[in-house]
Design brief:
about 280 residues, eight-stranded parallel β-barrel, 10 strands, globular
């Protein structure tokens, strides 16, 4: 199993986030770092401070050398996928090919409504999301892209220069919906992120994803499986290790430890040591 960390840019300062990422870049146990992509805090008072995800991720790419990095995940309704494709290609270049493109259908009604960004019904969100996946892949991998969908229309669209990862940066889709999200994941993604739930629920979703892969003739082993767990200072590291071990027994590839604010790099080495001592790290 591999391990990563996540720092949401909410209720924190840029200096504190930067310190965590710079320290983690020197600790080999962490293969990747993640932020989220929201404009309001989502685990606390929504009127609090929240740095923009892609801007901070780009700065973090410049401040690190080794870590892979991505948003977990970008709601595609926030940015037209043609714009997002250009952002992703540029960040893949800036990071030297370390970008993971985390995307989802979107869900936050409060910030979407406040900003006047249409969220739509669940069905509309999923239809739009599937179109966005196709647009992103086209612009990140082909010279020109034509697309005539309900939500997006492109004519001879270009996106140059493209990043070093070919055919495109790995696409990570977050979500648990069995009928649409996991089917879209099977068709378009290289990485699936399980969003909250028990070990039994993870195992069930993994089997549903495998069934969707079988339907289109894809090997499910091509899709990396990850999940996130928030570090609870009251429970400490043993609870995280137990969680990772349980999901690892069901096929989890990447355990992402969500570090709550205030962000402090001092937490990284003791956590890494606990992971090493557990024998879970591959």
């Amino acid at each position: 199993m591999r391990f990563a960390f996540k720092t949401s840019p909410q209720d924190t300062t840029w200096a504190d986030m930067l310190a965590v990422w710079r320290a983690a870049d020197d600790i080999e146990i962490y293969e990747s770092g993640w932020t989220f992509d929201h404009f309001y805090p989502i685990f606390s008072d929504s009127t609090g401070p929240c740095l923009e995800g892609w801007t901070t991720l780009t700065a973090l790419a410049q401040a690190t050398e080794r870590l892979r990095l991505g948003t977990m995940v970008t709601g595609v309704h926030y940015r037209h996928p043609a714009v997002l494709a250009n952002m992703a290609a540029s960040l893949d270049i800036i990071s030297g090919g370390r970008l993971e493109l985390g995307i989802g259908a979107g869900w936050n009604e409060e910030e979407s409504g406040a900003y006047g960004i249409p969220l739509g019904t669940v069905s509309e969100r999923m239809d739009r999301f599937e179109e966005a996946c196709q647009v992103l892949i086209g612009l990140l991998s082909r010279e020109t892209t034509d697309f005539d969908g309900k939500f997006y229309q492109l004519t001879g669209a270009r996106n140059e220069p493209k990043g070093p990862q070919r055919p495109h940066p790995p696409i990570c889709i977050g979500g648990n919906g069995e009928k649409r999200t996991l089917r879209i994941t099977a068709r378009y993604a290289q990485h699936w992120n399980f969003v909250n739930g028990t070990t039994a629920e993870f195992a069930r979703k993994r089997e549903v994803l495998a069934a969707h892969c079988a339907d289109i003739g894809r090997d499910p082993e091509e899709i990396l499986l990850s999940a996130q767990r928030r570090l609870d200072p009251r429970l400490g590291y043993p609870e995280l290790i137990e969680w990772a071990a349980a999901l690892g027994a069901e096929g989890l590839d990447l355990a992402i430890i969500y570090l709550p604010p205030p962000h402090d790099p001092a937490v990284l080495e003791p956590l890494a040591e606990a992971i090493r001592d557990s024998g879970l790290a591959s």
